[in-house]
Amino acid sequence: RGSNRIGDTEGCGGTEMGFEPKRILVTGGTGLVGRAIQEVVANGEGQTDEEWVFVSSRDADLTSAVETRALFEKHKPTHVIHLAAMVGGLFKNIRCNLDFWRRNIHINDNVLHSAYECGVQKVVSCLSTCIFPDKTTYPIDETMIHNGPPHSSNFGYSYAKRMIDVQNRGYFEQHGCRFTAVIPTNVFGPHDNFNIEDGHVLPGLIHKVYLAKQNGSALTVWGTGKPRRQFIYSLDLARLFVWVLREYEEVEPIILSVGEEDEVSIREAAEAIVEAMDFRGELVFDTTKADGQFKKTASNAKLRHYLPNFQFTPFRQAVKETCTWFSTNYASARK
Ligand SMILES: NC(=O)c1ccc[n+]([C@@H]2O[C@H](COP(=O)([O-])OP(=O)(O)OC[C@H]3O[C@@H](n4cnc5c(N)ncnc54)[C@H](OP(=O)(O)O)[C@@H]3O)[C@@H](O)[C@H]2O)c1
């Protein structure tokens, strides 16, 4: 079916020269993060001893153990980047906590167990900073994932994601597997889900500004605009994912985030979009709508310890690029 391959190690000199080529299977390869990894691999980050295979739910429904196993047997990966998940913004999470829990638990268990049974050398899964305890001290770091209940708005998604960390520890202790996870903050970029009801805050706002501009109406931001978030551009995250796959040896997860000083309020994020799209209308805050967690400031000290010189794309530039992508691809964008 429709999996997307980059690079081809079949018949290449890899094994002849004494090293095994890597076959990297990316689940969720058609989503926001998956498409960004496709782009950075195709545009210079890929290596000749790597074959990348990007799959979506059309290749296998990973909630099915049988389909997951068949996918692994078909592609025989040596490495896996596991992105596939039921993902959504605040309002979809509030409505569907049970579905988030069940689907993600099944997907993660099927992927990790198939990886174990098929002898995969390394798996990098994806957690999120929104799964950390609601009541906590700041900044949040990698040691604090299990220190208390998550925010009530997304408890289903959060507990399912936390179990990946439990599984990684278990597969390491019982079987010596190198299964690890990264913890990104709020991701945005081209190919995001720009649905206003079910998507994340930034793509939802971009879509709203686009419509408000077309209709000559005001821009209504849901909530007070006061909550604070660290946003990471999907293409920056993609470069970091490739580094983790190749270089990061710990089973313990690592937060992938811009610095604490780069946290912005929802109002500031909305203003960056307004500027990028040259929207001249009124900005209104609908305070009858939920704010979600006030902040979840994360420390990127561990990342900086490994990669002190990594350059993040400036927020306003990344917002501008994403707005331009959305406007150019409005007809086909997920919305
Ligand atoms: N977006 C964020 O702000 C954010 C922040 C932190 C962490 N993360 C994590 O990053 C990862 C990628 O997120 P994203 O924003 O790129 O998500 P996304 O754009 O919604 O993409 C989700 C991907 O998962 C696939 N998928 C969903 N259900 C599946 C199933 N049952 N079987 C097989 N594939 C399935 C989708 O395939 P189809 O295209 O076929 O539906 C798609 O490729 C997720 O693990 C997410 O939890 C995201």
Blueprint (SSEs and pairs):
Blueprint: E1 4-6, E2 22-27, H1 32-45, E3 50-54, H2 65-75, E4 79-82, H3 90-95, H4 97-117, E5 122-126, H5 155-175, E6 178-184, E7 186-188, H6 201-215, E8 219-222, E9 228-229, E10 231-233, H7 234-247, E11 254-256, E12 264-265, H8 266-276, E13 283-286, H9 301-306, H10 315-328
Parallel strand pairs: 2-3, 2-4, 4-5, 5-6, 6-11, 7-10, 8-13
Antiparallel strand pairs: 1-3, 9-12
The chain binds NADP nicotinamide-adenine-dinucleotide phosphate.
The site of NADP nicotinamide-adenine-dinucleotide phosphate has 26 residues, from helix 1 and strand 7.
Question: TL;DR?
Answer:
By secondary structure, this protein is of the alpha/beta class.
* Strand residue content: 15-25%
The tally of beta strands, per DSSP, is 13
Q: Detail the poorly predicted runs.
A: 9-16
Bound molecule types: NADP nicotinamide-adenine-dinucleotide phosphate
Radius of gyration: 20 Å
CATH structural fold name of one domain:
Rossmann fold
CATH architecture of one domain: 3-Layer(aba) Sandwich
- Class inferred from helices and paired strands: alpha/beta
User: What helical percentage do the residues reach?
Assistant: 25-40%
Distance separating the two termini: 25 Å
From the spread of the alpha carbons, the general shape counts as: globular
What would CATH call the class of one domain? Answer: Alpha Beta
Could you tell me the mean pLDDT?
92
Describe the sheet with the most strands.
7 strands, mixed
Biggest sheet strand order reads 1-3-2-4-5-6-11
Multimeric organization: single chain
CATH superfamily of one domain: NAD(P)-binding Rossmann-like Domain
